[in-house]
Design a protein that fits this description.
This protein is α/β, with parallel strands linked by helices. About 40% of the residues lie in helices and about 15% in strands. The chain contains 19 helices and 17 strands. The strands form 3 sheets. Strands 1, 2, 3, 4, 5, 6, 7 and 8 form an 8-stranded mixed β-sheet that branches. Strands 9, 10, 11, 13, 15, 16 and 17 form a 7-stranded mixed β-sheet that branches. Strands 12-14 form a two-stranded parallel ribbon. Helix 12 packs parallel to helix 14. The longest helix is centred in the N-terminal third of the chain and has 21 residues.
Length: about 550
């Protein structure tokens, strides 16, 4: 099977996995929801966004491989509302009434982190039955961070807006309670700390939904509702007007239309194409399309990740092409030194970026030193960094240990850790061991991290890890004077190798929220363009100092 055929097969499977997330609770529950005169979470988002604008859905596979519905009963993502990039979170009431499970909480936390780091307003589209009670022990204590994040966002002057379409009970009542602006739908919103049954049990008081927490009561009596909407469409209209009055405008660089390959939704929901070059009404910047066709990305990634590939062939397909304005598409830095790491400068949709991309998989001392210098230069020029992963980690062996691989790897990780310009990461192939750390993996808080369907990430490759365990078991037996049963250990070795293989695959990692989504390689340029636009909502300033670099 060719590289292209293998990648297309993976992409077809990715589309199928995304289709599960888009389906929510399934046709039965979507039909029941519509029969009640209600819109689904994605329909609400679609009406909220500027017509034809992009929506970058985040963590669509959250909870994959768990006992919970893929997507974690909430849709999160970044979209443009009245020309303003906003973080949007929408409960999916077709999945257990929108109840929050442990993955819901983690997914919302990640959305809150992105909103905070990039100075984005947050719009919550609320309809949730509260916590999934059987898993309350995993939700209740960590879940308080949701409310902390809302109040801290308000203190940072990052507006928070809650549009309440249905239930918002118990702790969920604090979402509108702690938001800057609230819109309640008449006859739909029900916001109370305890519903009528709980109030009856706790106090003996008889009450009904409307008098206890209905939209009109909160608009006329408690004052919790700032706006009373006649229906869901009216609530979305009011929400858009609130954003229009936030006085948050900036002159962005354009992002052109998106082909819509990510989600198999009838309206290509995950990332709708923008109708105009710049939906905010500004003149777009001048930049050239890539020098090589992004379609060619499907041919580059070997089916066996042990085979190296030239990351320059990736770079030339995702960065702006050669032009009078931009000069060469990619200005490589130190091309003859540390050649298994490619570094250099480029632009993506007119925005400058420094790129670090693994070439031959292994990071040696020269690569680590080269990366350290390059990261310092990017911080000196306040330039965002893009890490393209395909690494098996730092080189091991007596000569390399004596040559200082630990201290040189530590230098690189020091530089990554203390760099203050925004970081973006894309895991194209392997991302193993400390190489994941040096290349700015999830633990190092990149602003955004996406994976390709070809990606794998673990402490080491499955075969290597299983082999290490076999060697350790053999040495342990010999130290006790016992005979090592290699044949008997084979079953253990095979099991470990299969388990590590499964746990290193992109769906598993995405389900754990170790990335922000698995994407079609051909969409990388557009996804990065949106991310680079988003990070411009906050000041970009390089680090003024780093930790101690060991000589």
């Amino acid at each position: 099977m060719s590289n292209r055929e293998a990648m297309l097969e993976k992409i077809a499977d990715l589309d199928a996995q995304h289709a599960v997330a888009v389906a929510g609770g399934g046709e039965k529950y979507v039909a029941r929801h519509h029969a009640r005169g209600k819109l689904t979470a994605r329909e609400r988002i679609e009406l909220l966004l500027d017509p034809g604008s992009a929506f970058l859905e985040l963590s669509p596979l959250a909870g994959w491989g768990s006992d919970f519905t893929v997507g974690a009963s909430v849709v999160t993502g970044i979209g443009v509302v009245e020309g303003v990039e906003c973080m949007i979170s929408a409960n999916d009431p077709t999945v257990k009434g929108g109840a929050s499970n442990p993955w819901t909480v983690k997914k919302i936390f990640r959305a809150s982190q992105i909103a905070g780091e990039n100075n984005l307003p947050t719009i919550s589209l609320v309809e949730s039955g509260g916590a999934d009670l059987p898993t309350q022990k995993e939700i209740f204590i960590p879940g308080g961070k949701l409310f902390r994040d809302l109040t801290r966002a308000s203190a940072r002057r990052q507006p928070t807006i809650a549009l309440v379409f249905g239930n918002s009970t118990a702790g969920g009542a604090y979402v509108p309670g702690m938001s800057d602006y609230t819109v309640f739908v008449r006859g739909g919103a029900k916001v109370f700390l305890g519903g009528p049954p709980l109030v009856k049990m706790a106090t003996g008081e008889e009450s009904d939904d409307e008098s206890l927490g209905g939209a009109e009561m909160h608009a006329r009596v408690s004052g919790l509702a700032d706006y009373l909407a006649e229906d869901e469409h009216d609530a979305i209209r009011i929400g858009r007007r609130i954003v229009a009055r936030l006085n948050r405008r900036r002159p962005p660089v354009a992002i052109p239309g998106y082909p819509g390959k990510l989600e198999p939704h009838p309206r290509n929901f995950a990332l709708e194409p923008r109708v105009s070059p710049d939906i905010r009404g500004n003149q777009p910047s001048t930049f050239a399309e890539p020098d090589a066709d992004p379609e060619g990305l499907l041919d580059l990634i070997p089916t066996d990740l042990k085979e190296p590939f030239d990351p320059r062939e990736v770079i030339v397909r995702i960065v702006d092409g050669t032009s009078e304005h931009n000069g060469r598409a990619f200005d490589e830095f130190k091309p003859l030194y540390g050649t298994s790491l490619v570094t250099g400068w480029a632009e993506i949709h007119g925005r400058p970026v420094g790129i670090l991309a693994n070439a031959q998989g292994v990071l040696f001392s020269e690569e680590a030193q080269k990366a350290t210098q390059f990261i310092q230069l990017a911080n000196s020029s306040h330039t965002p960094l893009l890490f393209l992963h395909n690494t098996t980690g730092y080189m091991v062996g007596k000569d390399y240990e004596q040559g200082g691989i630990i201290k040189h790897g530590a230098m690189m990780i020091n530089a990554v850790s203390n760099s203050t310009v925004p970081h973006l990461s894309v895991i194209m192939g392997a991302s193993y061991g400390a190489g994941n750390y040096g290349m700015n993996g999830r633990a190092f808080d990149p602003r955004f991290l996406f994976t390709w369907p070809s990606a794998k990430s673990a402490v080491m490759g499955p075969a290597q890890l299983a082999g290490v365990l076999e060697i350790v078991a053999q040495q342990s037996a010999e130290s006790k004077g016992e005979t090592f049963d290699a044949e008997g250990f084979k079953g253990v070795k095979d099991y470990v190798e299969a388990s590590v293989e499964e746990q290193s695959l992109p769906y598993f990692l995405s389900g754990m929220l170790y990335d922000d989504g698995v994407i079609d390689p051909r969409d990388t340029r557009t996804v990065l363009g949106i991310c680079l636009s988003v990070i411009e909502n906050a000041p970009i300033r390089g680090a003024e100092g780093f930790g101690v670099f060991r000589p």
